[in-house]
What we know:
Layout: H1 2-27, H2 38-43, H3 45-70, H4 75-91, H5 98-110, H6 122-155, H7 158-162, H8 164-172, H9 180-185, H10 187-207, H11 211-232, H12 235-244, H13 251-264
Helix pairs in contact: 1-3, 1-4, 1-12, 3-4, 4-5, 5-6, 5-12, 6-10, 8-10, 10-11, 11-12
Transmembrane segments: 7-26, 56-89, 101-119, 131-150, 192-210, 222-248
InterPro entries: HTTM-like (IPR011020), HTTM_dom (IPR053934)
Membrane topology: Multi-pass membrane protein
Amino acid sequence: MTIFCKAMLVFALVKILFIWNTSLTLVSYYEFATPGSLIGKIIFLPSVLANDHLNLIYIAFMAVLIILVILPWNYISGILFFWIIFNLYRLNIPVMNGSDNVQLVLAGCMVFMTVRPYIKHSILSDLQATSFNAAVILAQLIVVCIYFISGWDKLVTESWRTGEAIAMIAQREQQVGVWGSAIVENALVNGMLSWTTIIFELAFAILIWFRRFRFPLLIMGVMFHLIIAFTLTLYDFSFVMIASYFIFLTDEDYTKMIRNLSVFA
Length: 265
């Protein structure tokens, strides 16, 4: 789970870099009011300070995230990360999208994805292990539900079954990717990409729970999201979903991956 947490940290770092200029524009149009309660002031402190010092707040966010990437993951790391993501979300609500929603809910789960420091008391250690396992399962279910709901919605939507939805998405984007124009103009490619999306999303929700299908499915998912990213320029959603894949891999899976890679070294 440590690799999953680190991947989400790196994604947050990149996200800040790309949203920085947009955030500067947003804070010039509105001011975040200071909450009346002490708890509210603590929770929203970065958002309040960002009214006049957004650059300093973002520099501080990036510094903390870099430190969290380097240090072992623990409860403090999880709380700090969720605090940063929550305030980023609050500061940029007008331009938030699906990737930010995914990042926020997964950051909430990550608070409990730690066994450090290990609690020796028997009851408390059991509670720690239970909360860890519950957080991991919840994060996995969130990712699975995203795919299933998205896939089912596309399946029952005529424009997705005909491929017209792909063309409409590409046309709606201000800047399509390298192959964007080909997608808009080619009905056959639209249909193939549409049904590939539907089948993959529905299959992922079922097959990801079976070990024999997990690696091939995750590899297909990486390729799928890279294609989506570079054809429709949906970079942030594609990359947060790729980062979320690490939640499905166990320590045994990572050991097996390293062993297989060492064969080619």
